[in-house]
C-alpha cells in the first residue's frame, strides 16, 4: 500500500479506515490525514493497544487494501480530450499516448496532477 497515494486521496480512503476502526472520530480522522504513524498513534490512544498491536493491525489492513487506487472516474477521458484539443490529434492517438505513458509510469495517478489549460 502506498501511503503517499492514501494521503493524497484521504477523503476517499478514510471511510475504509473508519470501517476498520469505528471508534475513531471524524476529528481524529481529519488529524490522521493519511499519515500511517498518526493512524498508529490514534489506534493506540483510542483502543488502548500497544504500538506493536496497532502496527500489526495496520499491516493486516494494508495487506487487505494493498491494491487501493483512488477513484478517478472521468479523468482519463478528460485528459484524452485535453490532449486532442491542445495537440490537434485524433482520439485514437491521444489514447495511445496515454496508454504508453501509463505503461512507463505505473505509480502515476491522474488525480495527483491538474490538467493543463489550452493556450
UniProtKB/TrEMBL annotation:
InterPro entries: CsbD, UPF0337_stress_rsp, YjbJ_sf. It comes from the Bacteria. Residues 4-55 form the CsbD-like domain. Belongs to the UPF0337 (CsbD) family. This is CsbD-like protein. The lineage of its organism: Bacteria, Pseudomonadati, Pseudomonadota, Betaproteobacteria, Candidatus Accumulibacter.
